[in-house]
Structure formats: C-alpha cells, structure tokens
UniProtKB/TrEMBL annotation:
One of its GO terms (molecular function) is GTPase activity. GO terms for cellular component: cytoplasm. This is GPN-loop GTPase 2. Transmembrane segments: none annotated. It comes from the Eukaryota. Signal peptide: none annotated. Keywords: GTP-binding, Hydrolase, Nucleotide-binding. Binds to RNA polymerase II (RNAPII). It comes from Paramecium primaurelia. InterPro entries: Gpn, Gpn2. Small GTPase required for proper localization of RNA polymerase II and III (RNAPII and RNAPIII). May act at an RNAP assembly step prior to nuclear import. Belongs to the GPN-loop GTPase family.
Length: 308
C-alpha cells in the first residue's frame, strides 16, 4: 500500500513567526504522542532547527550557492532553486519515505511573489499532493500567518485580508489564516476595534465606516483613500468571510486549537483508530473548533489587555 501522510505548509512573510510555529507545533505534537518532522522548504532559511527532527532543502540546494554560481540576484536564485527542487522532487520523497506515520510540518519561504505572481509554489504543491504518486500520498492544509500589527491600521488589515483571499484561491488547498504574535498587543496597546472583530472578519466595510485614521500629514484616511478601500473591502466581504485564528507561540491552548483545525482541514481528524490521548482531546474541545467561542476571545482579551 502507498504510505499516506498528513501535513501542513506554513506560509507568511519573513519574520512573522513561521519557523517558531513549526517548532511549537512539533513540541505540541510530541506532547500528544504524535510523531512529526519539520521540512524546511526555504533555500534561503538559515534556521538550523537544532533539537528538532528536520529534512532541510539546504542539503539539496541553497540560494547563496546559486547566487554565486550563476551570478543571480536573490529573487532569481530563489526561483532557480524551486525549479531545481521541482525537477528533483524524488530527493524529497526519498527522504519522506523514511518517516512513515509522521506528521509533516513544511516551513515555506516568505516571499509573497512566489504565491501570487509565479507558479513555483503552486507546482510544488501539485507535486506534493499528486494523487497518482506511487511513492507516497500527502494530504495538506495551508496555514498562512499574519502579524497582529496589521490590525492597527485600516489599510494594513484590508491588505492582509486581500492577501489571504488571493493566496487561498491560488493554492488550491484547504486553507487557514492566522493572526500571530497576539502577545505583542501588550506592547502595541489596544486595537482600534475589538479582537473578536478582527478574528471574525465578517464586515470589513465597517472598519472604514468607523475609522478616524489619519495620514502623517493629518489628512483623514477615509477622505483620501476611502472610495478605493471601500470597494476593495466590499469585494472581499462579498467573496467570503476572511476569518483569522488567534495565536501566539507561548499559548499552548491556541496551538492545540490550531492543530485540531489543521487536522479537520486535511482529514487526519476523521481517521479511525486515533490514539486515545487524541480522542480525549477531540471529546473535550473538538466541537469548539468550528467556530470562535466568545469565552475564548474574552479569556484572551483578559490575558492580553489587562496586563497593559
Ligand atoms: N512576541 C512574539 N514573538 C514571536 C512569536 N513567534 C515568533 N516570534 C519571534 O519573531 C521572530 C521571527 O520568528 P521566525 O519564526 O524566525 O519567523 P519566520 O521568518 O517567519 O520563520 C523571532 O524573534 C521569534 O522569536 C510570537 O508568537 N510572539
Ligand atoms: Mg523562518
């Protein structure tokens, strides 16, 4: 029988916390007696993942070497690396095959162009999830991280929502958007609207209606960019709800919630014969995963705002 794997690809801009989350997921998996392995897919990522089981694309190719050898800039070198990986995908499959029954945590590169203006990542995902692959089969969910700093300005939050809609449409995978580093609210101060509003993302237009955001020159955002932004917000609102999962790496409960959401999205959650520890977590919180419980948001608000 062809071995079947479950996994997540973690995406988002550089510095948003992808590698940290990969490690956090791996630790949590260990706590619930699930085996997992991190696969670094960013040929420019110098993180060593010390103490973590890891397959590293740097063993195959690095952006640095390609830049030197072909005298390319970093972006062109990255594209070269991806094409090389696509041409040599058996390198990755040969490594993965040794980790039967492991959960696969892919740490992906941050450059947004790779997801929007180029088909490298799309092609890679097609190869990874190819149903005709006779070596192994993988069921994936994409998890895109956004910095909670995006919530403080109308334009940045609407951009983040737009990126989320576009990337999710481009990847053709089950998809989750995450608002990460929420612990930083303690430093940034309270957000203009409630945390629940940003997480549920049900009515982007509302944000524009109530904002008093001004430019550096004192001009009101609403007057200067209101029309265009309103149209964009309306378009997103009409498409689908862009909701975000709350997260910060220190909060184990939120990491567990994310794991269950990922499992529901890629199908692991519905397997028979799951380990007893996992079954008991399912019984305890499984139903809450499909929505954002008000108590959870209130608990978070207390934790994040009251220590200000
Ligand atoms: N405050 C805070 N910092 C975080 C969190 N997650 C990651 N970081 C920090 O953000 C920086 C970038 O994280 P990293 O995982 O390397 O980001 P990547 O470039 O997306 O892989 C590091 O200094 C991390 O310690 C978080 O949840 N909260
Ligand atoms: Mg990283």
């Amino acid at each position: 029988m062809i071995p079947y794997y479950y996994g997540s690809i973690i995406i988002g801009p550089s510095g948003v916390g992808k590698s940290t989350l990969c490690k956090g997921l791996s630790q949590m998996m260990q706590q619930i007696q699930r085996k997992s392995i991190i696969i670094n897919m960013d040929p420019a990522n110098e993180d060593l993942y010390e103490d973590y089981l890891c397959i590293n694309i740097l063993e195959l190719i690095t952006v640095e070497d390609v830049m030197k050898e072909f005298k390319l800039g970093p972006n062109a070198a990255l594209l070269y690396c991806f094409q090389f990986l696509l041409d040599n995908i058996s390198w990755l499959f040969d490594k993965l095959i040794k980790y039967k029954d492991y959960y696969l945590i892919f740490d992906f590169p941050g450059q947004i162009e790779l997801y929007l203006a180029n088909d490298s990542i799309y092609n890679l995902i097609q190869l990874l999830t190819n149903k005709n692959n006779q070596t192994l089969q993988i069921s994936l969910v994409a998890v895109q991280l956004f910095d909670c700093l995006n919530c403080y300005q109308v334009n940045t939050f609407i951009s983040a929502s737009l990126v989320s809609v576009t990337v999710s449409a481009n990847l053709s995978l089950p998809y989750l958007a995450v608002l990460n580093k929420l612990d930083l609210i303690k430093q940034y101060g309270e957000m203009p609207l409630s945390l629940q509003y940003y997480l549920e993302g049900e009515n982007l237009k509302y944000m524009l209606e109530v904002t008093d955001q001004c430019d550096e020159d004192g001009q009101k955002f609403k007057e200067k960019y209101g029309q265009l932004t309103y149209q964009i917000a309306q378009l997103i609102d009409s498409k689908e709800v862009v909701s975000f999962e709350p997260l910060f790496v220190e909060n184990k409960k939120l990491i567990m919630r994310l794991i269950l959401k990922m499992d529901k999205a890629n199908g692991y959650y519905f397997l028979e014969n799951l380990p007893p520890i996992y079954k008991s977590i399912q019984d305890e919180v499984g139903e809450e995963i499909d929505f954002l419980p008000t108590e959870l948001v209130m608990e978070l608000e207390t934790e994040l705002f009251e220590s200000n």
